[in-house]
Design goal:
The structure is a homodimer. Chain A has about 130 residues and is α+β, with helices and mostly antiparallel strands. The first copy, chain A, has six helices and four strands; from the N terminus they run ββαααβαβαα. Chain A has a two-stranded antiparallel sheet with strand order 1-2. In chain A, strands 3-4 form a two-stranded antiparallel ribbon. In chain A, a hairpin with a 2-residue loop joins strand 1 and strand 2. The two termini of chain A are about 30 Å apart. The N terminus of chain A is likely disordered. At the A-B interface, strand 1, helix 3, strand 3, helix 5 and helix 6 of A face strand 1, helix 5 and helix 6 of B.
Chain lengths: ~130, ~130
Amino acid sequence: MPTKRARTAASPQAGSTGRRRPVLKFRVRVTDGEAIAVGPGKVDLLEAIALTGSITAAAKSLNMSYRRAWLLLDEMNRSMREPVVESAKGGSTGGGSLVTDAGHKVVALYRQIEHDAEAACQRDIRALMDMLAR
Amino acid sequence: MPTKRARTAASPQAGSTGRRRPVLKFRVRVTDGEAIAVGPGKVDLLEAIALTGSITAAAKSLNMSYRRAWLLLDEMNRSMREPVVESAKGGSTGGGSLVTDAGHKVVALYRQIEHDAEAACQRDIRALMDMLAR
């Protein structure tokens, strides 16, 4: 699973003990038995396919192999009632790929959940962040 | 393009309960530069130390090596203003270990954030779960 890079120091001079900016991230995962039906890497991938119109280009933009991207999509398609990505005519090498309506809905719900979760916890998040060494 | 799996009987992994139950999980992480200051594994570990009174016993209860537990605690202690665990007299092999007030506060805030996040997103979580194949 590709991990989001943590935000780095505001300036290189900050050094290892300097003013790094701590970040709190919610990662939401829907597991179904052994399978991860929906997770951050899969949602990033769907967004990249919507943007680029192809699995190959999307995988490249995420520093992910085509094979890895394909496996993530396969796992997601198997887990959902409706497929989240469909290939246009010409197959995966020719006609590009489209995020389906169901795929767009997954992305929208996922991002909304991330957003609302953080919004709902602002006070406790601040209290936790205040406990960090600066 | 990955194809949707034909609906099949529950997999052997489902065991005697038949249908798998999809689960949505929030995982909250606080990163500080390269370090993970607070995350699910660390909070589980703090709870296990509070329960067992020792790093060794806590690590064992989580199927974690002592070394791994120690590294997680070290990373957390370095990231926080105050240490989250302290060794009682006799050191880590003799006197056991205590979760500090700061450590208990981290656990409480973390669990509260997880709980409130999920509570705030019930409707969208349900909508997302409804998209899963059953």
